[in-house]
Amino acid sequence: MKEAAIKQCLKELADALSSYDGGAGKGDSMGIYESGAGDA
User: Three-state DSSP class for 36?
Assistant: First the structure.
């Protein structure tokens, strides 16, 4: 439960950050957060 909540939070954060990049960095941001969550 907690891990899923953390992943959702990171996903939303990545989406928010990507908005500043104009969408071009969305894939890069998501990849970083997804790999980080997987390692954790």
Answer: helix
Model confidence pLDDT, tens digit, residues 4-23: 999 999 988 888 776 665 54
Q: Are 9 and 33 in contact (CB under 8 A)?
A: no
Residue type, 15: D
Total domains in the fold of the chain: 1
d(CA 40, CA 20): 26
Q: Identify the residue whose tokens are 């990507």.
A: 18
Domain containing residue 31 = 2-39
Residue 38 token pair: 């997987």
Note the pTM of the prediction, 2 decimals: 0.42
